[in-house]
C-alpha cells in the first residue's frame, strides 16, 4: 500500500483545502445595552444531546464576540438559501450589520433573524482557546418550533455561497 502524499503547511493552501468541506452558514447573535450584535460564522456544530450542547469558533481578534461573552448568552441563526446577502452584511467590520434586517427576540432577548432556516438560543457553557480562535460551547435553552423549518439551507463551498440544487453541479 502506498502512502498518501500531502502538501506542506501553507495558510492559503490550508484554507483552500478546507474550502472543499461544505458547511452551513450561521449568524451568532446577542444583545447588550447598546442593542443587537452579531457576526457570520461557518464553524458551528452540535456537541451533545444530553445535555443539549452546540459549539462555534470565533477569531480571537473579533470585536463582536467579547460583547456577546459579557452577556453570557447567544443565539445561533442557521441561514436559509436566500440569505446570502445577510451573511455578507454580518461578515463586514465597521458597518451597521442590522440595517434592514428583520428580527424577533427569544425569551432570553437574543435576536433571531426572520426567515432563517432554524435557530437555537443558548447560554455560554464553556470557552477554550485554540490557536487564533476561541471554541465556544453553548447550552441550548430554547429552539425554533418545527413550523419555522420551511427553507433550504445556505451553504458555503469552495469560497462561494451555494444552494442544494447547485451543489450537485461541482
General shape: globular
Do you know the CATH architecture of the domain at 22-42 and 63-124 and 143-160? Roll
Number of strands: 12
Low-confidence stretches: none
Instruction: List SSEs in N-to-C order.
Output: HEEEEEHEHEEEEEEH
**Which strand order spans the largest sheet, edge to edge or round the barrel?**
3-2-6-9-10-5-4
CATH topology of the domain at 22-42 and 63-124 and 143-160: Pnp Oxidase, Chain A
Helix content: 10-25%
SSE layout:
Elements: H1 11-18, E1 23-24, E2 26-32, E3 35-41, E4 44-48, E5 53-59, H2 65-71, E6 73-78, H3 84-91, E7 103-105, E8 111-113, E9 118-130, E10 133-143, E11 155-157, E12 160-162, H4 164-167
Antiparallel strand pairs: 1-11, 2-3, 2-6, 4-5, 5-10, 6-9, 7-8, 9-10, 11-12
Could you walk me through the main structural features you see in this protein, from its secondary elements to its overall organization?
The protein has 170 residues and is an alpha+beta fold. The chain starts with 10 loop residues before the first helix and ends with a helix. Strand 7 (103-105) and strand 8 form a beta hairpin. It has helices at residues 11-18, 65-71, 84-91, 164-167; strands at 23-24, 26-32, 35-41, 44-48, 53-59, 73-78, 103-105, 111-113, 118-130, 133-143, 155-157, 160-162. The mean pLDDT is 91.
Features:
170 residues, alpha+beta, Pnp Oxidase, Chain A, three-stranded antiparallel sheet, 16% helix, globular
Amino acid at each position: 500500500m502506498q502512502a498518501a502524499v500531502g502538501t506542506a503547511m501553507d495558510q492559503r493552501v490550508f484554507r483552500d483545502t478546507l474550502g472543499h468541506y461544505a458547511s452551513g452558514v450561521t449568524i451568532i447573535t446577542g444583545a447588550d445595552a447598546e442593542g443587537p450584535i452579531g457576526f457570520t460564522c461557518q464553524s458551528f456544530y452540535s456537541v451533545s444531546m444530553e445535555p443539549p450542547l452546540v459549539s462555534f469558533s470565533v477569531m480571537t481578534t473579533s470585536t463582536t464576540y467579547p460583547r456577546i461573552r459579557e452577556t453570557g448568552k447567544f443565539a445561533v441563526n442557521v441561514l436559509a438559501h436566500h440569505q446570502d446577502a445577510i451573511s455578507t452584511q454580518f461578515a463586514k467590520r465597521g458597518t451597521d450589520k442590522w440595517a434592514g434586517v428583520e428580527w424577533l427576540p427569544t425569551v432570553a432577548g437574543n435576536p433571531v433573524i426572520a426567515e432563517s432556516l432554524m435557530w437555537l438560543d443558548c447560554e455560554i457553557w464553556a470557552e477554550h482557546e485554540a490557536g487564533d480562535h476561541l471554541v465556544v460551547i453553548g447550552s441550548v435553552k430554547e429552539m425554533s418550533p418545527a413550523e419555522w423549518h420551511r427553507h433550504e439551507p445556505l451553504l458555503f463551498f469552495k469560497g462561494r455561497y451555494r444552494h442544494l440544487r447547485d451543489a450537485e453541479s461541482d
